[in-house]
Amino acid sequence: MAMMRSLIAGCGGYLPERCVPNAALAAEFGIETSDEWIVERTGIRQRHIAAPGETASAMGSAAARQALERAGIEVSAVDAIIVATATPDSAFPATAVRIQQQLGITRGFAFDIAAACTGFVYALSVADAMIRTGQARCALVIGTEVFSRILDWTDRGTCVLFGDGAGAVVVTAGEGEGKSTDRGILSTHLHSDGRHGDILLVDGGAGSTGGTGLLRMAGKEVFRHAVSKLAAVVDEALAANGLGHGDIRWLVPHQANLRIIEAMGRKLNLPRERVVVTVGQHANTSAASIPLALADAAGRGMIERGDLVALEAIGGGLTWGAALVRF
Ligand code: COA
């Protein structure tokens, strides 16, 4: 039976010009750390850091422009913009509306989603639902973050882990047959559990009665949840489509930590070369990490038409989720 499917028509990314290798964190930022410690525990070798005045909206607009260009779609076709960010330009207007204005779009609607590092999967899920119900026909789904502005640069346990950047995908309405061989987003699976809200949070910010406005993390606790929850949600997505580990062509995971990514590859029985890894170059860019990794893989011509791609992420909330997309 014919049914609506949301197709990923193009992926784009943007990284700020300034690239800071691990060694510079010790030498220039005065952080008591070493390249060896960071690489061994996380796989991170460098991160990009936004210039003063460079905002989530500006970076998101740049990523969106590249995604539209690669999709060969005119900006005038866009009727929805959904932005995942934990570092918006301001509490309101939404960063998505700023991006709408920067792209010169005056029709449709734009709004933000807050789900921390899982934000892109949440945003993609909402876009998919809106496209399949006919509320939108061409959506920009963007993850954009300036985590450098919410890091405690005196806490070496967190400040070395994150970076700034933006990624975007263009999602368009298409048709399928309701089968797992269809092109497009096959399904999305979202979860949250607020009991673990305090192991990874921004302490304070707009509307709070105190705090510092900076990121706090109990790293070991987050690690403990990550692999089991991520493996379970990817298996849930595969089962929902009658698919198995062997059907995954590419795993594009949230890029937080190479050890978590490698453990996921093992859980899903995927050879290393089937897992897209950008954490070494980008560090953890939160909601931007999956679309940035997709843009990187697409830019290298790795993902081909018909490939089944599994996306997964976990982050503050706790929130976690997965999506299966056939390109
Ligand atoms: N450089 C050098 N030493 C550091 C350091 C740094 N940047 N950060 C911490 N250390 C030290 C600690 O002070 C501690 O020293 P001590 O033993 O003398 O007290 C030691 O290294 C071990 O610290 P610990 O925090 O126990 O390290 P860990 O093995 O748990 O690794 C993480 C820390 C953050 C790398 C790890 O917990 C992790 O990856 N967690 C998941 C985080 C994540 O992915 N979050 C995002 C999810 S969206």
From TrEMBL:
<comment type="function">
    <text>Catalyzes the condensation reaction of fatty acid synthesis by the addition to an acyl acceptor of two carbons from malonyl-ACP. Catalyzes the first condensation reaction which initiates fatty acid synthesis and may therefore play a role in governing the total rate of fatty acid production. Possesses both acetoacetyl-ACP synthase and acetyl transacylase activities. Its substrate specificity determines the biosynthesis of branched-chain and/or straight-chain of fatty acids.</text>
</comment>
<keyword id="KW-0808">Transferase</keyword>
<feature type="domain" description="Beta-ketoacyl-[acyl-carrier-protein] synthase III N-terminal">
    <location>
        <begin position="111"/>
        <end position="194"/>
    </location>
</feature>
<feature type="region of interest" description="ACP-binding">
    <location>
        <begin position="255"/>
        <end position="259"/>
    </location>
</feature>
<dbReference type="GO" id="GO:0033818">
    <property type="term" value="F:beta-ketoacyl-acyl-carrier-protein synthase III activity"/>
</dbReference>
<keyword id="KW-0012">Acyltransferase</keyword>
<dbReference type="Pfam" id="PF08541">
    <property type="entry name" value="ACP_syn_III_C"/>
</dbReference>
<dbReference type="InterPro" id="IPR013751">
    <property type="entry name" value="ACP_syn_III_N"/>
</dbReference>
<dbReference type="InterPro" id="IPR013747">
    <property type="entry name" value="ACP_syn_III_C"/>
</dbReference>
<dbReference type="Pfam" id="PF08545">
    <property type="entry name" value="ACP_syn_III"/>
</dbReference>
<feature type="active site">
    <location>
        <position position="284"/>
    </location>
</feature>
<feature type="active site">
    <location>
        <position position="117"/>
    </location>
</feature>
<protein>
    <recommendedName>
        <fullName>Beta-ketoacyl-[acyl-carrier-protein] synthase III</fullName>
        <ecNumber>2.3.1.180</ecNumber>
    </recommendedName>
</protein>
<keyword id="KW-0275">Fatty acid biosynthesis</keyword>
<keyword id="KW-0444">Lipid biosynthesis</keyword>
<keyword id="KW-0443">Lipid metabolism</keyword>
<keyword id="KW-0963">Cytoplasm</keyword>
<dbReference type="InterPro" id="IPR004655">
    <property type="entry name" value="FabH"/>
</dbReference>
<comment type="subunit">
    <text>Homodimer.</text>
</comment>
<feature type="domain" description="Beta-ketoacyl-[acyl-carrier-protein] synthase III C-terminal">
    <location>
        <begin position="238"/>
        <end position="326"/>
    </location>
</feature>
<dbReference type="InterPro" id="IPR016039">
    <property type="entry name" value="Thiolase-like"/>
</dbReference>
<comment type="pathway">
    <text>Lipid metabolism; fatty acid biosynthesis.</text>
</comment>
<feature type="active site">
    <location>
        <position position="254"/>
    </location>
</feature>
<comment type="similarity">
    <text>Belongs to the thiolase-like superfamily. FabH family.</text>
</comment>
<keyword id="KW-0276">Fatty acid metabolism</keyword>
<keyword id="KW-0511">Multifunctional enzyme</keyword>
